[in-house]
Structures are given as C-alpha cells and as structure tokens.
Amino acid sequence: MLQKLWLLICLSLFIPNLAFAQAIKDVEVRGNKKVESRAIVTLMKSKAGDQLDPALVRQDIVDLFKLGFFADIQVLRAPVSGGIKLIVQVVEKPTIVAIKYDGFSEISAEDMQKKIVAKQFTIVDEAVLAADVSMMKKEYEGKGFYLADVRYEIREVKPGEVDVIFIVNEGSKVQVGSIDIIGNKFFSDGELVSRMALQPLSRLTKITSRSNYQDAFVKRDTEFLGFYYRDHGFAKVKVGQTITALDRNKETVRLTYNVEEGDQFSVGALSVSGDILFPEAELKEKMLLKQGELFRYSRFAKDVEMLTDKYGDDGYAFAVVSPQTRFDDEKKTVEIRYEVEKGKKAYFGEITIVGNVKTRDNVVRREINFSESELYSGTKLSKSKEDIQRLGFFEEVQIIKKTREGSDDILDILIRVKEKPTGQLQAALGYSPNTNTSEGRVFGQGRYDEKNQSGRGWQTQVSGQWNSGKNFNFNLQFRDPRVNDTEWSAGLQLFTTSQVSPILTDILETQEKRTGASITIGRKIVEFIQASLTYKFETISHDSEQFLPQRFIEEGLSSSVIFALSRNATNNYLDPTEGSEVVLRQQFTGGAILRGDQEFAESSLTGSYYFPIDFSENYRTYFRFHAALSYIYALGGGEVPFFERYRLGGYNDLRGYPFQEVGPQFNILQSPGGAPLAYNKGGDKKLFFQLEYFFPLIPEAGIKALVFTDIGRVFDDNEGIELSEFKRDIGFGFRWITPIAPFRFEWAYPIENGKLGEQEFIFYLGY
Predict the structure, then answer these.
(1) To pair with 582 at 20 to 30 A between CA atoms, which of 157, 402, 552, 764?
(2) How far is CA 548 from each of CA 503, 543, 544, 545, 678, rounded to the nearest angstrom?
(3) CB within 8 Å of 59: residues ≥ 6 apart
(4) Phi/psi of residue 623, each to 5°?
(5) What are the C-alpha distances in Å from 379 to residues 306, 309, 319?
(6) β-strands 333-341, 266-274 pairing
C-alpha cells in the first residue's frame, strides 16, 4: 500500500507537466548510495535522445519499485538547452545491521535465527519480514501457543541503517480440554478419539504434545472421521464443521465434531469399461474390493491405484481411471464401474537428480530400476523411490514427472532428495550403578560411524570402548555395499577385545583376549536377498589370577568361514519402522581345511518384523518383533569351547538379567564337605524373543520411547528345544537419536515366580 501511495503521489505531481512531448537530453539519478546510477538508468525505458512518453515514465516507476531497493521514487524534469533532463529522485530502503528478539522463551532466539529469511546486512523487505512473522506464529501454534502474538519493529540506528526486532507475546499454551462427537452411533466416542491426532489433555499427552491445539490437526481429524467411517462402509457419511470453544481461562479449548453416519453399504457389481487391455476377470481378481463384502474406501482407492499402475506398467503413463458409483439405498449396496482411458504410450526421458550435495549421483542412480528411453513403468518408478529411501541417506525423496516440451510421449524424471546426517562422531565417559552391590561401573567410549562415507555409500566405523578394569575393545570396519556399482559387496574388519568373564561369581574369573580380522564378499541374489561369505581369523588367549581348570582355558588360533543368506525388506536400512529382515547363518571353525586350535560349527536363524501404526502423517508408532534361534555343536569328536557356548542376559537379549547370567548351571564342590558352588557352563542351543513398541516422545528432538518384553532360554546339550521354562522380563526406555550418536536408556525387570525382580539399568550408545 505504501508503494502504491507513493506511486500515485509521484504521478499526480508529474503528469501535469507532460502536456507536450519533449526530447530527453539527459537522465540523472539522485539520492542513491548503494544502488549504482548506471544500473537504474539501464533499467529505465525512458532514454536520453528519446521523446518523453508519460506511459513509459509510469512503467519506469513501477519497474524500479519492483526491485525492492527503494522506499520512495520521484521522477522530475528540468529544462535544459534543446529539451529536458529527467531527474530520478530515490530514497533507498535502509540496511538491516542487527536482528533482535524480544519475549522469546518457549522457542529460542537461536532456533528462529536459523529459520528466518531476513538476514543481517541486507535491505529491509517488508514482505520477507511478514513471511518470517507468519513462520514464527506457526512454530508457536505447533507448540500449543495458539494465542501467541508476533510482530516486528524497525528502529533506525542511523540514516540508512536499522535494527529489526521481532517481538512476541507468547500468551498461555492452549491445550485441548475435551473432545466431543455428536451423532455417532456405530462407533463410541472413545474408539474414535483414540485414533485422532489431537487428544484431550492428560499426563501422557502433555509429554507427547498431542494435546497442543493446532488448526492443522483439527482439519486432519475432521478428514480422518470421514475417512474412518467410509472405510467401514458408511459411504455417505457427512462430517460437519468443527465447533471450537475457547474456555474462559484461555488455556483449554473444547472441540465438538458433528457426524451424520448414514447407512452402511456393501459392494455390489464390479465392472471395468473403456480401453480394456486385460481380461476383466484378471483385473477383478487383483482388486481388494469383492462383491458382497463391506465397502471400504481404502481398498477402493487402492483398486484405482492398481488399475493405474497396471496400465502404467504397459507404458500408458497417462492412463486415467474414472470410477463411477451407483448406490442402491434399498439393498444398501454400491455398484462400481471403473472407466479406463489409456491415453498414449510414454517413454522415460532424461533422469536428473538434485539436492544430493554430499551423495554422489551414481549412488542414487544405481538404485533406479529403469533407464532413459525405456518404456514407462509405474511400478519401476515407485520401486525406485522406495529403494532410494531405503538407503537411509535422505529425509525426503520426491520424484517429479514432466512431459518433455515438444514430445508428449516422453517423460523426463526429476529426483529431488533432501539429505540428512549419516555420520556419528562420539566420545563418552559415564557411570552406571550396580543394583546388586554398592559399587558401580565406570565406562568410556569413542566412536566414528559413517554410513555414507565420502558420499559413495561406503560404510566405515572406528570404535573403542573401555568398560571398567580389563574390559575393552577396538574395532575397525569398512564395507562397500556396491563395488563399482555392481551387485557385489565387500568388507574388511580388524578387531581386538578383552573381556573379563566370571566362571564362579566372586571366586573365579578369567580375562579373555581376542585379536583378529575378517574379510567378507557378498552378492545380491534376487530382490531383497543377499548372500555373503566371510573368512575370520583370530588369536585367543586367557589370563587369570587364579588357577584355571583345563576346560576353562582356550588359547591358540581360530579360523572360521561363515556363510550367510539374508533378506532385508525394511523401509530404511538405518532406522526401520516397517518391513522385515531375516538372516540365516552357518559358521564352520577349524577342521582339516581351515586348521586352527578350535573345531566346531554354529547355525543360527534370526528375524525381525516391523509393524507400523500411523496416527497422522507425522506421528508414526511401530511394533518390533524379534526372534533368534541358534545351535552350536562340536566337529571331529571334540567339545564346543567353554566360552563359545551360549548364555543370555544383558543389553542385547534378556535385558532384565545381568550380562550372560542365564544358562544351564553346573554344581561343583569347593572343598570336601563344603557347600556346592554353581557356575554357568552355557548351553548348545538358545532361543529368545523380543517384542518392543516404539512411539515418538519428542519428535522434534529425535526422542522416542519404548516398552518391551523379552523371553528366552538356553538349552543344555541333552535337552531338546521346548517352548517352556523361559526366563522373562519387562521394561521401558528411551531412544535419543542425536547427530552425535543414538543413546539408549532402558530399565528392565526380571519376572521370577510371577513377581518383578531387581531393576537392571541399561545405558548404551548405539542401537
């Protein structure tokens, strides 16, 4: 408005003096300090030597204002010999010398500084400042401060220089006090509200921020109610406008949703018409909706998507599926006819990747399942996006299709990615209390972990850990998952470890040292399935201050070869929330070919399944079910080494029990007539299960909580595998995903005879 006002003033002063056409002899700029006169004169259409044209002068003023550099522009004329001189009088906008914040406490000024568009030492732009104010208001709304008032002030420091001050009156946080649903008969209030993004204020929702009032979440919940009813057959449901009532204290809001359920419909006749390229029976077989079943909108949408992809896989990228529905209110059925217009066949054009500042193009391109000039396939395009996301290198992957200009049958593909940190550098020194004794445990750890080394997709890790006394380890790993962009992988590992293991608690223990290396080669067999072969070589020694019986002494060389077959169909290799992973592993140690001082074999099968539950687009919870079965056995008539035998307990399996405490017990006599002492001799078979439920606690900070239960058992040599007499525990914890490292804090309780035992606290860096 200010610019338009100045424009009108200038024109009103200028136009009366333009009654007669006159020659422009010169153009002079006055008042400019930062913008060069030559740049202003060059932009103007009114030039020296031309006849004065009022329309061009008006356009010159408009064009100069569009630059955004000037607060005021006046164009005057002065008579000179043979014509006139145009004088362009400008007032430049001031420069921002400082950006300040007043009243910010719930959101830090540092956070706002990173997100605002306005920058120091740039000219004042009111549109930019207004956008920054709008952004700040949304940030406050996201934290529940719906009544926050944000504005800006411009204060002159000296001529041409100003400070910009963002001022906020945060007000009180607005929480959802109650949610009422009117008109629902089929579903109860509790069933509907429990699935909504916003939740009434409680201790739990206050922690998770789900009770913070937000307009966007109200809109989402309104849409959800309609979708949820339609997905249960209520095809004609109506959800009215939400009634929002702010309580007198201006701290809580009451939400009321109005629902007209209507009737519940089943699926009537199904048919496909239009451009039929496939047998109708084949298409109907692939549909999720079946005649006679309840009409579910989610399945209806997936059937439309299936038909579109089916035609797209045949090259018809522009196929349009238009479903036509007819309701029979008496029979309570809905007849669906899918009308298909195939359009023209299309081909993939140029593939462009943007946003990958660190990651090299080839790392992304080798996950693309199609090539330029290939016949279009919707399935290949979708799968390429999934494979790129599965790398775990990107926060977001977008695939944009654009018809090439002049060629309506060629689709150029733009892949836009947004990278996220994939490296971790950490150093930690900590203390963990021991609930069984008065002593605690001091530990230190350092680690460098990079999943996308040098942007080439290489995985490197250097780690060292000291865990009280003589317990320490050092590990160096490198893996190239796609050697020269092929399906082959290769890896190398160097390690040294020292572990003090108790044989008889507080009486007999030994320090086991291992130093060695391994080399691995692998190859993708089919989709999701990888095979690998590893050769591992290590030296083993034992040291104890007490006399050790021969069976507890393992020294010498260990030479092993390990075959593995794995299937990883998770949605993210680094932090999965959906999908499954299975690993079958067979190890052979020693023997006539491998040699060494140990001779045994080990077979294992492990699997994990992730099941997501999405409460909103940005709030995903998920279950993780993990199971492991292992069997170790001797070769060549010998015995399985004592320290290779199985024991459970600790952060990685039975978390409610001390490290490696669970296993078959064997009694020995300390002295004639003395009480027998038991030691954990270990078993040759182990089986354990874990069930975990993860949910975001503070999503903005990367903090999620979990509750879990573990059950497991170690079987002795003469025992068969039975699903009984398992050790059990339950617990809860937190995972904090930081740029430095993932932190684990967990509290686990063993269950013995139906009662909870002493707490085991787990603090661990890493997954």
Answers:
(1) 764
(2) 10, 9, 7, 9, 16
(3) 45
(4) -100, 145
(5) 10, 6, 14
(6) parallel
Q: Tell how far CA 192 is from the center of its chain.
A: 27
* pTM of the full structure: 0.62
- Burial degree of 431 (CB within 10 A; 0-12, 13-18, 19+): exposed
Render pLDDT for 632-667 as a digit per residue (tens, 0 to 9). 999 877 788 888 899 999 888 999 998 888 998 876
Provide mean pLDDT across the span 87-95: 87
Q: Which two tokens stand for residue 137?
A: 């208001």
Q: At what angle do helices 297-312 and 215-230 cross, to 10 degrees?
A: 90
Beta strands in 103-216 (DSSP E): 149-158, 161-169, 175-182
Tokens, residue 136: 């700040």
Q: Which residues of 25-57 are buried (b: 16+ CB within 10 A; e: fewer)?
A: bebebeebeebeeeebbeebebeeeeebeeebb
Q: CA separation (Å) from 742 to 36, 575, 706?
A: 53, 11, 14
- Give Cα 277 to chain centroid, integer Å: 39
- 3-state DSSP assignment of residue 419: strand
Helices (H), 524-625: 591-594
Q: Which pLDDT score, from 0 to 100, does residue 421 have?
A: 79
* Residue 93 exposed, middle or buried by CB count within 10 Å (0-12, 13-18, 19+): buried
Structure tokens at 532: 């690998």
Contacts by residues 623-626 (CB-CB < 8 Å, ≥ 24 positions apart): 623/691, 623/692, 623/693, 623/694, 624/690, 624/691, 624/692, 624/693, 624/694, 625/689, 625/690, 625/691, 625/692, 626/689, 626/690, 626/691, 626/692
Structure tokens at 502: 């108790």
Distance of CA 485 to the CA centre of its chain: 26
Residue 637 confidence (pLDDT): 76
* pLDDT averaged over every residue in the chain: 85
- From start to end of 147-202, where are the E strands? 149-158, 161-169, 175-182
Residue located via tokens 């136009």: 15
Minimum mean pLDDT among 105-119, 358-372, 418-432, 659-673: which range?
418-432
What strands lie across the sheet with 333-341, from one edge to the other? 266-274, 333-341, 320-328
Q: What is the β-pairing status of strands 600-616 and 579-589? A: antiparallel
Cβ-contact 258, 288 below 8 angstroms = no
Is residue 102's pLDDT more than 70?
A: yes
Instruction: Name residue, tokens 């680690």.
Output: 447
pLDDT level of residue 13 (50, 70, 90 thresholds) = very low
pLDDT tens per residue across span 39-70 = 888 889 888 888 888 888 889 888 888 887 88
For residue 620, name the pLDDT band (cuts at 50, 70, 90): confident
